[in-house]
């Protein structure tokens, strides 16, 4: 009888733990992801060219000699339509370069550029033999933090307020103790 009771005491938590395990699939989101938007304008005379397709090269080297196309992984992408391209990534390499194929049969490469902000916007000038990428500064970008940064900012403020409350309480206790001793 005693052995059955001991076995039941060990088995009951295991069975309870198994019953509480989720039965469905679990999914998680990594939070907000950086984006880039590219608007193209033609800077040379002649028939208007349109974008056929393109890639965004990610590079670790400043000269982009190690450039690799941004991979399509889940929501991560680089796509072009009409006279614009957009990208969403889990994060971007330090250096970037566009390589776009146009309707005039030419494939043009851009200058090497870096991510301007979390949600970056760029003007891309189509020149006869290459592309010129220039970031568009938007003052609102200064205040558009990813949610994760906002969370840590709020957490830091709460910790600072908590520390100030503890210090104020300590000062009050010390002053009370001194006034009682006097």
Q: What does the model show?
A:
- The protein is an alpha+beta fold and 182 residues long.
- It has two domains: 109 residues, Sandwich (Immunoglobulin-like), CATH 2.60.40; 38 residues.
- Helices cover 30% and strands 29% of the residues.
- It contains two helices and nine strands, in the order αβββββββββα.
- The chain has a five-stranded mixed sheet with strand order 4-5-1-8-9, with no helix packed on it.
- Strand 2 and strand 3 form a beta hairpin.
Reading the helices and strands in chain order gives: HEEEEEEEEEH
Summarize the amount of helix as a percent range: 25-40%
- How many domain modules? 2
Poorly predicted runs: none
The neighbouring-strand order within the major sheet is 4-5-1-8-9
Secondary-structure map:
Blueprint: H1 2-20, E1 35-42, E2 51-59, E3 68-69, E4 77-81, E5 84-88, E6 95-102, E7 107-109, E8 119-126, E9 131-135, H2 147-181
Parallel strand pairs: 1-8
Antiparallel strand pairs: 1-5, 2-3, 2-6, 4-5, 6-7, 8-9
Name the descriptors.
alpha+beta; Immunoglobulin-like
Gist?
The protein has 182 residues and is α+β, with helices and mostly antiparallel strands.
């Amino acid at each position: 009888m005693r052995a059955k009771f001991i076995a039941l005491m060990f088995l009951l938590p295991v069975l309870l733990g198994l019953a509480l395990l989720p039965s469905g699939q679990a999914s998680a989101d990594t939070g907000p992801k950086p984006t880039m938007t590219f608007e193209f304008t033609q800077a040379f005379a002649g028939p208007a060219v349109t974008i056929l397709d393109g890639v965004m090269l990610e590079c670790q080297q400043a000269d982009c000699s190690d450039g690799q196309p941004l991979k399509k992984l889940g929501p991560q992408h680089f796509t072009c339509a009409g006279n614009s391209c957009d990208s969403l990534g889990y994060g971007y390499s330090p250096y970037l370069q566009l390589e776009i194929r146009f309707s005039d049969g030419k494939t043009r490469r851009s200058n090497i550029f870096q991510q301007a902000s979390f949600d970056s916007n760029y003007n891309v000038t189509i020149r006869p033999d290459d592309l010129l990428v220039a970031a568009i500064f938007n003052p609102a970008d200064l205040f558009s933090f990813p949610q994760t940064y906002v969370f840590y900012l709020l957490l830091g403020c709460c910790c600072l307020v908590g520390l100030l409350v503890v210090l104020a309480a300590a000062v009050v206790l010390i002053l009370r103790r001194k006034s009682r001793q006097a």
